[in-house]
């Protein structure tokens, strides 16, 4: 899971301006150079991202000197909106893995909530996460702890320019989103959501509300997401024998509304349910089921409990759906997909 860069959105803009948003890309675009993701390919600091992160961390610390019950409650509410509705349910389980279906307006609303997390636009986020699944803990993984815990946590965000996806990478990994003008716009203008909310908080409650609702909430949310990249590839238990280092980590799951059941997720990438046991609390899953109960969600994919999915071999040139193939090397593999709850 990820944090964003402005160049990714410029790449999306290039696709829109070039008229290639209809699903067809020129051969030169699809002929992508070998991936250059990973620590050895990144040189120096990304100044813009580093300055922004320093500023947000400073604002988070400043919030501790402006204790206000209403501001703290507002921050907690926005944390749920951005982290649960936006990142977990929207960016991750819907846009990246298409674990369920919903109406377009609902998809766009969840995506807008995701932009509040300040982890970049949806196109960049989804592209990076699909790359991670294809190369998890191997050459080409943007953020594996095998290259250092700090690197996997935040170093990959702050270093170099290798994750500044250009139009070619976007066309290769997110053709479904780059065909959608709304997602292109949300990617280009992802930063505006926090500006709008920040101005509203300033008008309502002044400095304390801005410090807690924007700076503190966003900083904690970023670290929670980064812990999925670092902690859940180092510490925890493993239910499935996947070909990566993914683990199930209960305390990361608590911070991320269920994203910490990461070994389950890597074994069953398309499953909208990550917590596969009664004690694996998965708030994102419960919220998806709640939306289904009122008719906003359908065709939910769920891991067949007790019957692990068969391993899928990684493709050398991924198509639009390669990111949703099962990535696990599991005991007693069965040649079947996820169960679908209609």
Overall description:
By secondary structure, this protein is mainly alpha-helical. The chain is about 50% helix and about 5% strand. The strands form 2 sheets. Strands 1-2 form a two-stranded antiparallel sheet. A two-stranded antiparallel ribbon has the order 3-4. α4 packs across α15 and α7 crosses α12.
Secondary-structure blueprint:
Elements lengths: L5 H12 L9 H4 L16 H17 L5 H28 L4 E2 L1 H12 L6 H13 L14 H10 L8 H7 L1 H4 L2 H8 L3 H14 L1 H24 L19 H6 L6 H6 L15 H11 L3 E2 L1 E3 L36 E3 L1
Antiparallel strand pairs: 1-2, 3-4
Helix pairs in contact: 1-8, 1-10, 3-12, 4-5, 4-6, 4-12, 4-15, 5-10, 7-12, 11-12
- The number of E-state strands comes to 4
Percent of residues in beta strands: under 5%
Give the oligomer, counting copies of the same chain as homo and different chains as hetero. single chain
Rounded to an integer, what's the Rg over CA atoms? 19 Å
Averaging pLDDT over every residue, what do you get? 82
Task: Compute the number of structural domains.
Answer: 1
Please trace the helix and strand order, writing H or E for each element: HHHHEHHHHHHHHHHHEEE
Widest beta sheet: strand line-up: 1-2
Distance between the termini: 28 Å
């Amino acid at each position: 899971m990820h944090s964003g860069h402005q160049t990714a959105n410029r790449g999306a803009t290039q696709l829109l301006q070039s008229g290639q948003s209809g699903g067809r890309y020129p051969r030169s675009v699809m002929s992508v150079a070998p991936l250059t993701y990973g620590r050895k390919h990144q040189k120096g600091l990304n100044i813009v991202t580093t300055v922004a992160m320093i500023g947000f961390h400073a604002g988070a610390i400043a919030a501790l000197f402006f204790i206000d019950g209403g501001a703290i409650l507002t921050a907690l509410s926005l944390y749920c909106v951005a982290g649960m509705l936006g990142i977990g349910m929207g960016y991750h389980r819907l846009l990246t893995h298409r674990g369920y279906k919903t109406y377009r307006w609902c998809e766009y609303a969840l995506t807008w909530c995701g932009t509040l997390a300040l982890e970049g636009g949806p196109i960049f986020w989804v592209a990076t996460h699909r790359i991670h699944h294809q190369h998890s803990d191997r050459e080409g993984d943007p953020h594996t702890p095998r290259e250092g815990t700090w690197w996997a946590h935040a170093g990959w965000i702050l270093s170099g320019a290798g994750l500044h996806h250009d139009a070619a990478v976007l066309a290769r990994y997110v053709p479904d989103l780059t065909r959608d003008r709304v997602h292109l716009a949300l990617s280009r203008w992802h930063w505006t959501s926090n500006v709008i909310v920040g101005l509203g908080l300033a008008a309502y409650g002044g400095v304390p509300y801005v410090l807690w609702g924007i700076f503190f909430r966003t900083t904690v949310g970023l670290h929670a997401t980064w812990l999925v990249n670092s902690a859940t590839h180092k510490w925890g238990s493993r239910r499935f024998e996947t070909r990566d280092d993914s683990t199930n980590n209960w305390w990361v799951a608590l911070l991320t509304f269920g994203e910490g059941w990461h070994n389950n997720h890597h074994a069953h990438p398309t499953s909208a349910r990550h917590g596969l046991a009664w004690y694996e609390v998965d708030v994102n899953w419960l919220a998806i089921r709640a939306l289904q109960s009122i008719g906003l969600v359908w065709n939910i994919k769920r891991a067949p409990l007790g019957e692990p999915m068969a391993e899928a071999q990684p493709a050398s040139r991924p198509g639009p759906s390669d990111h949703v193939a099962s990535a696990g090397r599991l005991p007693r593999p069965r040649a079947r997909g996820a169960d679908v709850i209609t």
